Task: inverse folding
């Protein structure tokens, strides 16, 4: 759904087309979901998300042929 724009750990994330489509659908309910998760898990939620993101591959090559960085 997302990818890092560069190999650097703190690079920005970019939505893939499928991610943008999901975001459009989830935007209507996201605030309620976010509030319930934060009230359920508290500050531990942020730490868990950061740990999960840090375990993701730092870089995934683009699909297809041709030049890529």
Result:
């Amino acid at each position: 759904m997302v990818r890092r724009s560069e190999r650097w750990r703190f690079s920005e994330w970019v939505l893939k087309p499928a991610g943008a489509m999901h975001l459009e659908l989830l935007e209507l309910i996201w605030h309620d979901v976010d509030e319930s998760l934060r009230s359920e898990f508290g500050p531990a939620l942020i730490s868990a998300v950061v740990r999960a993101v840090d375990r993701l591959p730092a870089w995934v090559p683009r699909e297809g042929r041709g030049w890529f960085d």
Notes: The two ends are 19 Å apart (CA to CA). The chain has one domain: 2-55. The helical segments are 17-41, 44-55. DSSP finds two helices and two strands in the chain.
